[in-house]
């Protein structure tokens, strides 16, 4: 790939992000602007923004990498990512908007009238956000490393700086424009090269390989092993070795390796003949960060059905609890707009997910060595050079590089905004826009530090684990909080800790390689099958055991969540003034003067004028009954 073209494309994406973010900076003045864009984002723009931040590194690079490694079983990832919005549409979207909250923590506190529930919800928002931010930063590092040969931390640093600046400068209003632009950029960046790659594949006269056939080297291929690995051979092969295999050093010698497992040291270069099957890699050896590179999908063949259900549950139910997705529904003007937004998102996300499997399938044919080197996530970036080459391949590769960077920036922006909102409200001692900017720096600094230590995490795997934690914690809280009036604060806390904590523990155990095989490993690698029911069951049982703790305002809160806005306003009597007063109260709490739009000012003057006229009318009969002297 031509480095000049690729770096130029990445630079253009970064500059466009900064310039579009500056547009939001000009009109972001209040706390409401920073958190929810003053709740004025229309469905079309909001849907593009949601799709832009949702389609992360796992979508742009990771799905293709998993298809390359594991074959068609991995198509459940895009299916689950898309179907999650259908569940969100049916159960959560409109009530969540009607809650009038800024964040998931605000919703938890408003529904259950408990600061304790809010603190636990905030803890999980930050944990899920950081777990999701990590693969975005590492994906950026991988992309710049492939494009320029720079250390992987450089790409992570670039994304961290750009995202922090955009979020701190303009908040939600700024990020909305940025993410909507980046969705269309990502769709174009995948669609245009895919069309050329398919044409090139049809024009290739070599024998066709079936989609689910084992990957083979189409020509003599030299592969450098950067990390010590164990490779599994189903049949004896002869290859050229320059380095150390099974403890023996070789210098560009032909070596026959028998069936079984072989240890290949880092820095070794292996030469494979055309037609040789690509060896499967076993878990990485050693201690420390090397274990982080072991694919989550290991052992799927042994417990395929269970792993598939674990993936489906995590992706179907985890979407609603992702902090950067949930916060965007608070920006809709009303519940009806939130539902329309979700319908449009289903179409936009579904269209996008038709493309990554194409790259994964072509990668199994034209870039099979990536399965051995551990760089399967790079398949999207290297295919134009492999199939097309020349200036055309360089230009298409540059377009893909720009789209990949847009994926990192858009998702990282949404996550940073969501985490910063929680840190701003619940961690920092003072409020206001200035402290929100400090919270934005804190939101990015922690995952960036971890990305320097925990390298080579498969991006789709890491995102899948974040989905599992989200499904096990916020899915029970949102579903029961919206649809079950008997939920109590102790039940909510117990469910968050039990379900979410169990999934988080499984994530940490999986990442550290304990246990390494068998049913125990599979249960921990795909925890949603048992952790989601555990979260629901715990919330229900504890709530039933604590009926006296049902919040006194539950009936009114549920009426607000489920009644259309016009009906709930008539029921409350003073209509939208309650929401406006709540916004004013929050603005005072954050140490700001809320800028009231002219329409709201006119509405308030009309309310006051009507009340004044009514009071005068009531007072007039009394005055008429008085004697002239008394007047």
From TrEMBL:
Subcellular localization, as worded in the UniProt entry? Cell membrane
* Molecular function in Gene Ontology: acetate transmembrane transporter activity; symporter activity
Membrane topology annotation: Multi-pass membrane protein
- Mind telling me what this protein is named? Cation acetate symporter
Chief localization: membrane
Q: Where are the residues of the annotated region Disordered?
A: 567-631
For biological process, the GO terms are:
plasma membrane acetate transport
- Positions with biased composition (Basic and acidic residues): 567-595, 611-631
- Superkingdom is Bacteria
